[in-house]
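Can't paste images in this forum, so I'm doing it all in text. The chain is below; anyone willing to post the predicted structure tokens underneath?
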Amino acid sequence: MKSMIAKYFRFRELGTDLKTETLAGFTTFAAMAYILFVNPNVLGVVGMNKGAVFTATALSSAIGCFIMGLIANYPIALSTSLGLNAFFSYSVCIGMHIPWQTALAGVFVASIIFVILTAFKIRELIINAIPADLKNAIGGGIGLFIAFIGFQNGGLIVANKSNLVGLGSLHVGTTWLTIFGLVLTIILFTMRVPAAILIGMCTTAIFGMATKLIPLPTKIVSGMPSLKPTFLVALKNLDKINSLQMLVVVLTFLLVTFFDTAGTLVGLCEQAGFIKNNHIPRIGKTLVADSSDMVIGSLLGTSPTGAFIESSTGISIGGRSGFTVIVTGLLFLIGGFFSPLLSVITNQVTAPALIIVGILMAQSLTKIDWKDFAIATPAFLTMIGIPLTYSVSDGIAIGFIMYPITMIATKRAKEVNGIMYALAIIFLFFLWILNEN
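Text version of the structure:
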């Protein structure tokens, strides 16, 4: 059995083994398990049934991971995007006064277009057209974004009326829990202890329960809530996609999801060392997996799914094949029944892991040609734009708009791929649409 798994997932070729892949799968799940609880809360503000959303999140995540692992053989987990669920609730449903049922239909239509673009290899063509320097900037920018999320989730960085953000209070117990986990994980990582991130997370969770900063679970097992309130609601509301406003919603979902997922995929593949000659092997299969899961997620009843940034935690401890996310997918299925136990994986437990991963991903910034100002400028704007706008797609938009401008200014317009000119125009329209709404 072990030999069959090793052969199918090409362990020897990828320089990995069953133990490493399994550990990476557990680590990835531990880092992203919070989405099972966060997603129902975010979508619940617009009236969606939280129990149904919980189940839809668990099932769509599991199915997406299985498809990614079996078809693309990449350690990239799929789940409901944290940024896109907020966009779904606050921008579309609340901001544009669109019922969640209609918005879900919009997600379904956008996901079908997604599949069509993938089938005709348009997404693959666009990703391969992105210059290597900008791909490295995306990877580094996502690293900064992940670290920023970690600092925020752990209470080390908080909102500040004067300066937007500031240092969190050191008089809060949970903040010290984050500091404990961060220092411990840094020490373990520096000493090259295997599975340093996972050990750090488990130790922090145990320490949190021992100090009563994390409440003990009240029970161990619970059944999955019914999917009935959200299941196939998207199909039942397709007739509502009949206005200019809804076409704009569909287009916006498509653009945001396209580049949010593309940016995350590029960043993760850069971290894992998969990119060869500015191309990602098997990128077509990877895109098929994530576009298929978006369709499945919309039918089950959740906002857009996509490549999950926290996959970087599993990659950081050696996950290199699809078996990593097969394990993660199985844990999502199990997690649906053991939801009370998942409550001990708090933001303070995962925050140190995200900060460490941010450090690791920032290494791609060394590959950018910083001496060439025409390249350095859009790369820097992409890198800094992702965390400052709190959006992978917005950060990419800023950098991609600037790229042809600096190249034209230095009389190197012919070096720019035609697709990059088209993307700059699309992104201008994209940002304008988001600003209007």
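The beta strands are 78-80, 157-160, 164-167, 305-307. The two ends are 54 Å apart (CA to CA).
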